[in-house]
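User: I'm new to structure prediction. If I give you an amino acid sequence, what do you actually give back? Let's try with this one:
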Amino acid sequence: MKKVLTVILSAIGFGLIAGLVFTAVTLVSTKTGIINNDTIVKSVENIEENSATETQKKEEQASRPAVNNYSNQFEDITDLIQDVMPTVVSITNMQKFTQNGYSMFGFRVQPQEYEAPASGSGVIVGMTDDQIIILTNNHVVQQSNSLSVTFNDSKTFDASIKGTDSSKDLAIISVAKKDIDADIISSIKISNIGNSDNIKVGEHVVAIGNALGIGQSVTYGIISAKDREIDEIGNSAKLIQTDAAINPGNSGGALINLRGELIGINVAKSSGSAIEGMGYAIPINVAKEVIETMSKRKDRETIPEEEQGQLGISARNIDAQTASSLDMPEGIYVMKINDDAPAKSSELKEKDIIISFDDQSVKTVSDLQELLTYTRAGQEVSIKVKRLDGGEYVEKEFKVKLANKSINQQQQKQQKQNNNSNNNNNEQQQPNNGYYYDPFQDFDDIFRNFGNGMWP
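Assistant: Good question. You get back a string of structure tokens that encode the predicted 3D arrangement of the chain. For your 456 residues, that looks like this:
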């Protein structure tokens, strides 16, 4: 009987324990289910929020201009290069040089003129019914006897200069489409011009150009700095600095961002044993006005020397160092106007500083002389000058009629005789024979002491 009672009590105890365990498990499961439900609700809310954000992003992207986006392809930019390479050309400039020298006995000999090829690059920025328009550096095309352009398919054609801006070191040249086969024209691409104001330091960029004159090459880097002012380059624009290699021959080539947009025109590099990875490009926003205005100009036409016009002045350069030390603008200082020149009766005055000729910026007498070789005697051209007025330099613009070159040659001969006389006479000139104005005295006489003048 005791055994039966013991079994019965054990069964009852086991049942109670099992019931309690079952109840506890049920409660825990219920609570766990509530927690899981909260988690699920929150997850759904997050998904909906993320979905809304993605939708907003897609809408914003759809509203932007349609451009190729290579920004996440740092490890592989082959598609980018294939896309933009046809927009870049190689330029060969047969430059003319004059070499002065001395004989074996120390006598000065007749100056010798010769030609030498110089290499550079350019970027296709437009196309008309008749021409392909190319942007490059002024120093790539200056002092040119002849120009040729090689496209990405290695076909070469003659090119002409449309206009130059020496202060920005930019130029526009063209290639006539009538000389190019249709299949080549169809392969040519116009550059997708970007906005250089939006660039950021650290942004990845690609430089493309005719490095060392041996053909197009590509270098890769980042934007190292913005708004750099480099006195050695002599460019008035604030430049983009990059560590993408810029080598000789890259001048005039393209600086491209990873969306395939043209953001700069490669112009120079700092060199030296202590310098590494400091190249520079002209921001494309600086070039936009040059593209707009000079693309519409007629191609320059070489004019026979006897038909070329001249201003009939003697002049000197005001370089950056002189301008800084004397607190005056850079440009071409007018020392004297020939009495026989038509410019004598114009608004041009002695002591003016010429900064633009025929709507093209000039910085040196050499710049002015080159432009004059493309203008005829008797032609009226627009000239901009800086003139001292009330202690400040103000800009003036007016028309000037060009003189016949033979008149100016007579002036040169007379001026050389005067310079020789000045060199042999140490007495100071009287005020009425010199040119006087603040912030210095006898400015022209100082210039004469350093050699003969130049007469454009």
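You can read the tokens as a compact description of the fold. Here is one thing that stands out. Confidence is low (pLDDT under 50) at residues 24-44, 422-442, 444-455.
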